[in-house]
Amino acid sequence: MTKDQILYLENSLYYAIRESDVQALDELLHPDLLFIAPSGDVITKEIDLETYRSGALRVQELIPQVENLNIIDDLAIITLTLELKGLYAEEPFEAKYRYIRFWKACSDGIKVVGGSGILI
């Protein structure tokens, strides 16, 4: 696992989020994903995918800025800020968040296994 691989996967993730590409998200997220949303809710992979599948979340603009990327054995930890603009449950939103995300090398590729986001 290299920093270039993780940055490539991060860019793939941003694209999948912007395009609501459930298939790509399914491939990037580990089945046992746990993520703490800015609301404080714990999100599983299925909850996350359903948000895109149902059209509840539609991201129109996504501007990432990576802050840190550390690789420890088979785990990558990335922190970034993300400016998001779009619709959630048909309500417009625009905000800036700080995320930490954990990528892990698994038998079927490098997957997101966890993370958290806060409003900044």
UniProtKB/TrEMBL annotation:
InterPro entries: DUF4440, NTF2-like_dom_sf. Pfam families: DUF4440 (PF14534). Gene3D superfamilies: 3.10.450.50. Residues 7-105 form the DUF4440 domain. This is DUF4440 domain-containing protein. It comes from Sphingobacterium paucimobilis HER1398.
